[in-house]
Request: fold
Amino acid sequence: MIETYTVEPDLVQMRTTRRGWPSSCNVYLIRDGRRAVLVDAGLGVEPDLGHLRSAAGAALAAWGQSLRDIGTIVLTHTHTDHAGGAVAIARETGARVLVPALGMAQACDPARQVHHILPTEVRAEIAAHRDLDVAAHFRAETMPVLFGEAPDVAFDTVEDGHRFDAGRLRLRAVHTPGHDVGHLVWVDEDAGVAFTGDLLIARGTSLPWYPPNAGGVGGYLESLRRLAALPVRLVCPGHHAISRGNDAYAALVEATIGAIVDRERCIVEALRDAPLSFAALDDLIYGAEIRDVIPWASSVTMAHLRHLEAAGEIVRRPDGLFAGNG
Reply:
């Protein structure tokens, strides 16, 4: 099921009640005169897609509109829980889709999806999922139609600094890699409204999540610092509830930075006592109950190990164990 929340008179959040993976992202509707704008598109599979259609239809009806009035779908990034429903909704409504340019390859090519979610170097470390067909999983459970398979849909790629008007909101794309290589935050600095995608920590989810090749730990922290400089009073995140107020926004950014820094500190402190395997370090970052459901949780561990190796703080020994460097 999807619950609908009126954020402001011309802005609606549609949030899934499902817990665990696969779980649709938050989808937002913005009233745009006689048209409407959708921010992110959720899963492209049933029953989630049908629930989204129903919720969006009801919200639009309250504005005297229908699904056919959705003119644009704006994506924060192309992970399949955010982009999975884009093709189906675009085909039904005729909407164009604004896609982060650096994320387009993932949305078109299963190999690129796998590369940015569960890279080969991570799969080599987790025997239980070494042969997992991640691409087939995403196809079946989240995104049945890739963007490259939809020549009838109008995709427009956008980059950092792109501007787009959605009703009263004057949105600007801010490139914030880390969670995803092409991740964009869409912000109206005058109105203080930001659609933050999956950049910020979210209660009841595995966020913050980040692989080693989407900006890495350093890229993620830099994105958060860039985000902290924005004058935001209303946070519309990709998962969980909205946050209101500049102080709440600042606290979310700091909490996300803190979570990342704490993970790094945990690894460094553990390696002061003795060399450890990847599996042992993986246990420090996410519990087995999470990794059993989303094996790409282990990508976060690898992101930290690569960051610490590059900084000269740890080394990998010939026997495969990681150790502190001095």
